[in-house]
Amino acid sequence: MIRIIALTETGHDLARRIQAYWPDSRLDFCPQPFTATVQQAFLNGERLIMICAMGIAVRTLAPVLADKHRDPAVLVLDEHGQFVVPLLSGHEGGANEWGRQLAGKLTAQLVLTTANPYLKPVYAVGMGCERGCSVTEIAELFHHCLGLAGLTAAKIETIHSIDIKADETGFIDFCNHVNKKFQTWSAEQLNTVKSQLSTRSDYVFRVVGVYGVAESAALYGAMAITGTPAELILNKHKSQRATCAIARSYPRTYPQEYTQT
Q1: Which residue range or ranges hold the Cobalamin synthesis G N-terminal domain (predicted)?
Q2: Residue ranges per domain, the chain?
Q3: Residue 62 has what pLDDT?
């Protein structure tokens, strides 16, 4: 869920433009009581676009911050839409990439203050499933998770799983449909990133030899692409018969197209 908050008439006009890009979003113009409304939306896990002064956003959200792994993404914009600033959860919550998308739509300047601002990230999706899971269920979970992370399918480099799923028809057919490479890894390889998992399942370990397929595959897959450590930007999400997680890694070098701000 995206909530757009505006405090001025000019900001309200901008908010309506932004809402057209995400029709399912909610627009609040001068909500009352302001602090309680914004804080509750944040605590509900809603991603926020706040068209207001940075100081207002900071003072409003400061009392309800948890940590970068749980806080939803927050973008702050000036009322004229000249600047887009990812305020919270830039990496883990996907605010940096979300902000990049919005800045592109508005022809605005993206202002990144987190680490690695000039590197082009590489995104990898990790998935697991019960044997015989349908392509439809896999596709629905995949696209749902992309939406939660503020990503599009075009941003995903590859899709990964454990090697016992190398012949999983649902994965193979789905990856062919979205034109993504499907790559699998051994339990031994996936266990090299077990310290980074958000949760560990002893049951899954007894069955397949790793503590979590989706997160392990996403982390190892992203790392394999760039040769540098990866981080989860979306922890494991589940449907009835499948799991999905998204990880990101940065290349060692600075691509030419990202050498200028």
Answers
A1: 37-115
A2: 2-110, 122-249
A3: 95
Coil, strand or helix at 220: helix
User: How far is Cα 119 from Cα 173, in angstroms, rounded to an integer?
Assistant: 32
3-state helix, strand and coil shares in percent for the chain, rounded to the nearest 5: 45, 25, 35
Show the beta-strand stretches assigned E in the chain. 2-6, 26-29, 47-51, 74-77, 83-88, 109-110, 122-129, 156-162, 181-185, 230-238, 242-249
CA dist 92 and 117 (Å) reads: 14
Domain 2-110 falls in which CATH fold? Answer: Rossmann fold (3.40.50)
Percent of the chain's residues with pLDDT above 70: 94
**Token pair belonging to 120:** 């082009």
Output DSSP code: residue 198: S
Q: What is the mean pLDDT of the chain?
A: 90
Q: Please write down the long-range contacts of 24-28, taking CB distance under 8 Å and 24 or more positions apart.
A: 25/1, 25/49, 26/1, 26/2, 27/3, 28/3, 28/4
Q: In angstroms, rounded to a whole number, what is the distance separating the alpha carbons of residues 72 and 93? A: 6
